[in-house]
Amino acid sequence: MALDLSIPVLVVDDYKTMVRIIRNLLKQIGFEDVDEAADGTEALSKLKERPYGLVISDWNMEPMTGYELLKQVRNDERLSGVPFIMVTAEAKSENVIAAKKAGVNNYIVKPFNAQTLKSKIETVFDG
């Protein structure tokens, strides 16, 4: 299946610079419809407002972490099928295992480039 670059993507990170970096990487890959949220709570309300084809979320955020957001998304039957990629600065195996158990589709450790992001996204949609 070819990667559908027209899908809306939601980038969730409380660090504006990281949002800008991921947004730019997504644009390099060819995604046009990129939205953002500053934390899990804002992301959840945006996810309920419109359908997104992909969520790329940071792990460490306040007040709702990316991990908590992932669990909420997977527990909501309308959102449970949304592909979800977790971004984190730490590659702790217990975090990776917890995210996998919670239903994450893929995992990216910072720093990363457009090629890494693209291959992780392709894995999610080809998987």
Describe, in short, the structure shown.
The protein is an alpha/beta fold and 127 residues long. Helix content is 45%, strand content 17%.
Residue-averaged pLDDT: 94
Name of the top-level CATH class: Alpha Beta
Give the fraction of residues assigned to helices.
Answer: 40-55%
Shape: globular
Number of domains: 1
Largest sheet: 5 strands, parallel
**Strand content of the residues, in percent?**
15-25%
CA radius of gyration is: 13 Å
Poorly predicted runs: none
Distance between the termini: 10 Å
Question: Helix tally?
Answer: 5
| SSE run | EHEHEHEHEH
CATH superfamily: Response regulator
CATH architecture: 3-Layer(aba) Sandwich
Description:
This protein is α/β, with parallel strands linked by helices. It has a single domain, classed as 3-Layer(aba) Sandwich (Rossmann fold), CATH 3.40.50. Helix content is 45%, strand content 17%. It has five helices and five strands; from the N terminus they run βαβαβαβαβα. Strands 2-1-3-4-5 form a five-stranded parallel beta sheet, sandwiched between helices. Strand 1 (9-12), helix 1 and strand 2 form a beta-alpha-beta unit. Helix 1 (16-29) packs across helix 5 (114-126). The longest helix has 14 residues, at 16-29. It is globular and about 30 Å long. The N and C termini lie close together (10 Å). The mean pLDDT is 94.
